[in-house]
Amino acid sequence: MLYSKIILMKNYFEEICEKLKNEIKIEDIEVVDNSHKHKRHKFYSSEKFHLQLKIKSLFLYSMSRLSAQKIVMKILKEDLETKIHALEISIEK
């Protein structure tokens, strides 16, 4: 059971990467699952993730941080409504 959950998570994280790569120029991306750090939060749900995206993208880095984050959030809008509770985004060149 735990193994299948890990596989599903890995597939979902890969899906997030593909969604972003299909829409914007990204050199590299890493998805970090920080859900375990938030178990005591008031609105914690094991059904939703607390994720950190570490994105290397000259395209995103060339614009304001707010504009770049808005683009990422727009692409992941559906996920933010259904599967992602919190999203931390760091962008570097």
Question: Could you characterize what this model shows?
Answer:
Helix content is 46%, strand content 25%. It has a single domain, classed as GMP Synthetase, Chain A, domain 3 (2-Layer Sandwich), CATH 3.30.300.90. It starts with a helix and ends with a strand. It is α+β, with helices and mostly antiparallel strands and 93 residues long. The chain has 4 helices and 3 strands, in the order αββαααβ. The protein has helices at 2-23, 58-61, 65-75, 77-82; strands at 28-33, 49-56, 84-92. A 3-stranded mixed β-sheet has the order 1-2-3.
Q: Which H/E pattern describes the elements?
A: HEEHHHE
Q: In percent terms, what proportion of residues is strand?
A: 15-25%
- Count of DSSP helices? 4
Question: How many separate domains?
Answer: 1
How many beta-strand elements? 3
Q: Helix/strand/pairing class, anyone?
A: alpha+beta
Poorly predicted regions are none
Shape: globular
What is the architecture at the second tier of CATH? 2-Layer Sandwich
Query: Based on the structure, what is the oligomeric state of the protein chains?
Result: single chain
The CATH superfamily title: BolA-like
CATH class annotation: Alpha Beta
